[in-house]
Specification:
There is one protein chain. This protein has 4 helices and 2 strands. It is mainly α. A two-stranded antiparallel sheet has the order 1-2. It is flat and about 45 Å long.
């Protein structure tokens, strides 16, 4: 299965300025796709996990392709500024700073 991922760091003010009053979510994406397998290995690399990954190939794959359509936000002049690898690293560091380090002491 393919998925399109993007990590967006937008202030609430900017988010609400780009949205209709009735909208709470809009799709955003870079237009680039990555397979779940490739994404899994990328995350494994970034978190320095040295274990084995196992995929159950007997299970249904689900949707073969699911690409986000970002036309609405792109018409407003938005474009992605953070690539997937950078966005994942920001998310991983945020998780470690907020949860992992705090709970490690317990």
């Amino acid at each position: 299965a393919k998925a399109c991922f993007l990590v967006m760091n937008a202030s609430k003010k900017n988010f609400y300025a780009l949205n209709d009053v009735h909208s709470t979510h809009i799709n955003i994406g870079s237009g680039k796709e990555i397979s779940i397998r490739d994404l899994t290995y990328l995350i494994k690399e970034l978190i320095k996990f040295d274990g084995d990954l196992k995929f159950d190939t007997t299970k249904y794959d689900g949707v073969f392709r699911k690409k986000l359509i970002s036309n609405k936000i792109k018409k407003l002049g938005w474009k992605p500024e953070t690539n997937l690898k950078e966005g994942l690293m920001l998310s991983i560091e945020d998780f470690k700073n907020r949860y992992y380090e705090k709970n490690k002491k317990m």
